[in-house]
Design a protein that fits this description.
By secondary structure, this protein is of the alpha/beta class. It is built from 6 helices and 8 strands, in the order E-H-E-H-E-H-E-H-E-H-E-E-H-E. It has an 8-stranded mixed beta sheet with strand order 3-2-1-4-5-6-7-8, sandwiched between helices.
């Protein structure tokens, strides 16, 4: 059976594009929804161009009522009936009340080699620490921030003259390879981690 995939994003949607464009042919999954908390997110137009249904749940009217915001997200997801939810640059921290509903079925991509550098400013932190390697991680989402079982990682060397911006650009390229590879394996029922680079 083909798995239905909902993708949540807040911005331009480059990882969504990488995922959506990979779900063709014999891929065990197909996109069923792109959902954003930002009506101006560029990823919504890119999804519509690909014929993927889109929806918006603007977080701002909820004025800090995270439970109500997440209930609205859940309602949109229930309408689309996804088997898997992929966070792809979705810039809202989700509570346990939401993540528990999708336990074992929600993936996220994070721009560091977890467990290093959870949270923000990952590239600057890796450079400041003198690391020789950076990268990205796909993991199952749990209530803990940037935690959960690791499903794949891609390693990217840090050059001596790297800035956070140049490193981020190379890591993003790796994200676009890693996330589709993990999703294909995961949707096919295989949770063996994918290791690239």
């Amino acid at each position: 059976m083909t798995a239905r995939v909902a993708i949540l994003l807040s911005g331009g949607g480059s990882n969504m594009v990488a995922l959506a464009d990979s779900m063709v042919g014999d891929h065990p999954a197909r996109p069923c929804l792109v959902l954003s908390n930002n009506a101006d997110a560029g990823g919504l137009a890119r999804a519509a161009e690909r014929g993927i249904p889109t929806a918006i749940v603007d977080h701002r009217p909820f004025k800090g009522d995270r439970a109500a915001f997440e209930d609205a997200l859940q309602a949109k997801l229930e309408t689309a009936r996804p088997d898997i939810v992929c966070l792809a640059g979705f810039m809202r921290i989700l509570t346990a009340g939401f993540t528990d509903r999708w336990q074992g079925r929600m993936l996220n991509i994070h721009p560091s080699l977890l467990p290093k550098y959870r949270g923000l400013d990952t590239h600057a932190r890796a450079i400041a620490a003198g690391d020789s390697v950076a990268g990205c991680t796909v993991h199952e989402v749990t209530a803990a921030l940037d935690d959960g079982p690791i499903l794949g990682q891609a390693r990217v060397p840090i050059a001596p003259d790297d800035t956070p911006a140049t490193l981020a650009a190379r890591v993003l390229t790796a994200e676009h390879r890693l996330y589709p590879a993990v999703l294909r394996r995961f949707a096919g029922g295989d949770r063996t981690p994918v290791m690239l680079g």
